Amino acid sequence: MTRVRVSRSEGVGRVTLARPEKKNALDRAMAEEIVQGMEQLAHDPSVRVIVIDAEGDDFCAGADLEALEALIDAPREAQLEDARALGRVFTVIRQLPLPVIAAVQGRALAGGAGLATACDMVLAHPGATFAYPEVRIGFVPAMVMTILRRIVPERQAFDLALTGRTLTAAEAERMGLVTRVIATEPFGAAVDDICRTIAKSPPEAVRRTKKLFYELEGRPFESGVAHGAQANAEARMTEEFRVGVRRFLERRRGAS
Q: Is 134 noted as a catalytic residue in this protein?
């Protein structure tokens, strides 16, 4: 891989965008490498959580416009294949059994904001900014719109897509696009602490939690509760649950 770096430590796998000279702009090759990196980490039994971060001052400035320019006269099928490469990044993040966390410093613009938005959690530096400015160059924030409309209210999503206005990290957090703004310095160490905490939880419980969370989307209330009851019963049958409950009760009894 030449556009991303993959690493792992203490249960945390990391996919690092590594084109700082391009402000980590996304092209098809980079999108494919992001998918390869995530899938590689997901198959490593030592990895419990995946972080997507970036080298340089910016998380990701969006699509590589020079790469798009090279496709201007390409036929529709070639345009579609190129677009699907980024779309696959979004769908793989959702389908992976491991939680995927974006660690955002600097600017996350257009496809870069989309990449962050697609993650299960977004941890942002106070100086981070987010925007979906595609419409300003005659483009459309197309694939991320599916995710954006699920995260923020409809009118706010339309505002962001139509105006391309820039949000501070604090504004993005209030809107629900950012999970937490991490003011503790250094930012990377604070992100690592959060990720290691998640990585310490029993891995099957974490996987089941992510799976159920997205399976509940669009279900009626009663159906969701019933589906949750099934997931609850299945979790009770795991060795992780048995060990965890007994260990907790032993500690409590020992303290009394």
A: yes
